[in-house]
Amino acid sequence: MNYIMSQRTTNVIVHTCGGILILMGVIAFFIPFIPGVVLVVAGIYAMSLRSSWVKARFDRVRSRYIRIDRPIVAFEAWVVRTWARLKKFFKKT
């Protein structure tokens, strides 16, 4: 059975995951042993994959704060690899 997600379904999934990560990050600000900033950045990055408005803001922050660029590039590479694996998995089933 071939299962191909529509563009709208993909957008909803990505925005929902990004929103959940941001919400978890905000909650994690008040918990001392969970890095809330990492979760917020991951959520914003996930949303910037599908939203040009979020991507423009995210790129502006990246250019302003150069120190965060290296971890973001590593995270982008991980997301691309993981997304490719997920697409391959769903095409097989």
Condensed summary:
The protein is mostly helical and 93 residues long. The protein has 4 helices and no strands.
Strand content: under 5%
Unreliable residue stretches: none
Mean pLDDT rating: 81
Helix coverage percent = over 70%
Largest sheet: none
Shape: globular
Keywords:
globular; 0% strand; single chain
Describe this entry's structure for a reader.
The protein is mostly helical. 77% of the residues lie in helices and 0% in strands. The protein has four helices and no strands. Helix 2 (36-48) crosses helix 3. The longest helix has 24 residues, at 69-92. The radius of gyration is 15 Å and the shape is globular. The chain starts with 6 loop residues before the first helix and ends with a helix. 10% of the residues are buried.
